[in-house]
Amino acid sequence: MHKNILLIFIFIFFNVSSQKYNIELYNTDSGLPQNSVKDIIKDKYGFIWLTTENGIVRYDGNQFQVYKNFPLNSQRFTYFYGHPEKDSIFTACDYGRIILLHKKIPKVINSEKRFPTLVSKEHVNYLLYCSNYSYTTYPGINFYLNFKEGRYYIKENTLTFSDNRSKAEENLKIKAIYKNIPRIFIANEMLFYINFTTKKVEKIEKGKIVNSYNVPLLTDSNSKLFWSRINNQVFILNKNTFYMCTYEKEQFSISKIIQIDKIKNNNLISIYYDKWYQKFYLGSSTEGLQIIHLPSFVPVKNSQSESVFYATLPLDSSSVINPYGNVYTRNGVIGNKNFKNTVPFFMAYDYYGNIIVRKDDDLKIYQKTTLYNSFTSVKNFFLKDFVFDTKRYYTLVAKRKKDGTPEFNGVLQIYNDTSFSSEKKEFLFDSEPTKFIKLDQDHILVGTVKGLYNVHIKTNTVYNIPANQELSIRNIIQSKDGNVWITTLGKGFYLLKNNQLFKMPSDRDNNISSSHTILEDAKGFFWIPTNNGLYRVLERQLLKYVQNKDVKINYYRFSKDSGFNTNEFNGGSNVCGNQLANGDFVIPSLDGLVFFDPLKIKSYYPNHMYIERALVDNKEQYFKNDLHVEQKSSRIDLFIDVPYYANPDNIVIEAKIMGLENAKWESVGKSRKFSISNLGYGNYSFIVKMLVSDDGKYIYKKINIIIKPYFYQTIGFKTLIVALLLLLLYLIVKWRINFLQRKNLELEEVINVRTKSLSTTVEKLEATKIQLHKEIEQQKKLIGTITHDITTPVKFIAITAEEMLKSKEFNQQRTEKVLASIYKSSDQLYNFTSTLKEYADIYSHHRSDKTEIYSLYTIIKEKKVLFNTIAESNNTSIIINVNEKIDTQISKNILAAIIHNLLDNAVKYTRNGTITIDAKTDKYGNIIVVIDDTGIGMDSQKIEYYTRLQENIENEKLLLQKYGMGLHLVLQLLQMIESKIIFKRNDSGGTICQLILKNKKDD
């Protein structure tokens, strides 16, 4: 269904005669690799990219960076496609190979299936159609367009839609080309067809026409259409005027962008409009790139008369009048009052609205009541400045000095009424007057070519306001908050506060030193015209500087590319700028009046900076956060890439190298390159800050520069050299000492050998003495105990033998009894002596025992074999649960004796049971051996005795006769190997003996 919707035209009207734009032309002479600019796009990082027939070009507003050494058969590139917001922009090159623009770098990828520029359908090839440039009128070439709902195929005069889901197809008869101009385009992801027959623009969805629009500019046969799907921009060129076409909310909107006097339509193939920066990019097939700066300011002048302007006055809310009577608005001259024979340096309104101008040294006062067509005159009145209030006139007059010099005196005159006839007071100054301002009823500030003065009206006194140098006052301005500002000729501008002048800092080029005036807008910005550009600064920043000189003032500069005819503005008149009732400012210049609305003028600051590449010894190197450089590199150029397309004077970038002595911020030039040379090895930080707003906000970026030292500069090498030097010094000193003491050493060597031998012997004797003393004490105690305990059996044997000798009669029973007693006593005596001998053997072997590492399991197994027969005769089994991997270096004789005695006791007192031997190591490395039997067990009295004896074996009395020699021997041996034993009653009635052996394997 066709629906006619009213077309809305949104035009930005410019007066053709006053429209001013600046065109910059770039070709192979100014940085481009080739003069054919096929396509233009801006990526998500803010960089402009161009395709040419000799590479891809990145433009940051300052310089072109060319990429053309790709590993391809050809460096010819055409159109862009993809998604800039996703950081995926593509351009086709060799078949099956594509250039991807990603993270600000182009690279070759092989992704034919994923990003095709050619598809086949029913054995017919179709090329991607994504802009006016990607379409060709050559016969036999077909095209396709991709959409979410499906794909469109353009073949000859048929548009075919293929549904992605149902595979259904719709055919629409069209005429794709009209006078070599494509009729099909995309706006805001919608497909449109220009029907020149019906003079309608038809919207197509799923292969069907769903709406139609009356858009005369699009259906005009004289219009040429330029569109780019990836940029989502549609342009119309009609009669040298460019329009932007947008489609939103079911409506087309056409906005006029700019009219260009001469343009070659046939050569224009690509267009991009940067709305934020107000820049228009035109790519030509033969002439390179044109960048058109759309004006923010409107310069006007009268081509029939003067172009140099000085004083002007507001005539109404949108116009000004100059001393010649010409009336100007934004659109140029709109009238002429014909003020004749006047000078351009003075104009003023009087109390009645009359316009005062000057003819040489006389005044001409044009009357408001006659619409300024008639005037009155005042003779010999060289008026320099004039103000009034409801009661009086105040004039500043120059009078020639009587000495005949070309210099002037200044006179401040105050009149009693609103006329020039009744003078009340007069104040004289010995230099030419320039400007004055009435502060209040009692104070007037007067400026001359030599200084500034404060006039007290009531006291009739004049005070010179001191300054560090002679100042030629250009203008005096009182801002809305009451602050008084002074501009000078060549000496900068000042704040007057408490009768003291505070000089403001200059801009980087010192242009603001000759400021003509200050205009204040509603946002608190000062607009300062100079002889080289118009500057803007926040007043509050200037006031902060007065309080703290460390505050940095940043002046924003506007120059010719903003729309002026010239950068030189004019001063030297009593009025150097006006604010109109409609909000416009009007400033005179050397080539026209400049109109602008200060609240609509943008400040352009960069938002991002990228430090990702460097030139190291003329070789380009890319990096992320760390730049690794060889120390042999003599020069490093670090590039600060900033996408910025406004006046480069307003980029404030400073950098410093942390790690150097006296590191300070240095300004980075317009090349945006920071050069470093001859850095020593070490780690440095390269810190960059960039101004991003009018109120002085900065963003910072830091990278690390790592310069590797030579091997001889490393700490290890230096340490080695110091060590070698110390060693050499030591060897020299030692050699010298050896040389001086050589003969003494020969004698001392013998003494030292003998002394050493004697010392060793003494040490061994001392150790032996201690050991022998200990052994003797133990043996004394043992022998004493044995002697005491052996007396009884010996005496018993003697008494028994004596009784048998004396008795004559022995019956068999008595004889057996006596012999049994003798046997038991003798056996007991034998056991004592046998154990004593075993103890002596072990002790003698222990002194020289140097046992190697051996297996604990082996020695226990040997003892099992020894006692196994006896145990079997008692119907007892011996079980070994010992890890064969447990090794030890404990004295083998001692350990064998200990296990022998304990196993002997277990076998002796166990019948019809089991004896279990376990062994393990604890977390301290000790060996725990447990001998667990199921015999009759050891009573608690014995356990208590042996426990107490083990704890104090030096002093405890030995009960050998009562408890036998075996366990006493075990305790003595355990003391020798610094180990211990724990006796416990077994729940089954037997005894558990737990040995805690200090393992000396690792000692």
TrEMBL record:
Residues 785-1001 form the Histidine kinase domain. One of its GO terms (molecular function) is ATP binding. SUPFAM superfamilies: ATPase domain of HSP90 chaperone/DNA topoisomerase II/histidine kinase, Homodimeric domain of signal transducing histidine kinase. CDD domains: HisKA. The keyword Transmembrane applies. The chain crosses the membrane at residues 710-733. It comes from the Bacteria. Its EC number is 2.7.13.3. It catalyses: ATP + protein L-histidine = ADP + protein N-phospho-L-histidine. Keywords: ATP-binding, Membrane, Nucleotide-binding, Phosphoprotein, Transmembrane, Transmembrane helix. The keyword Lipoprotein does not apply. This is histidine kinase. It comes from Chryseobacterium paridis.
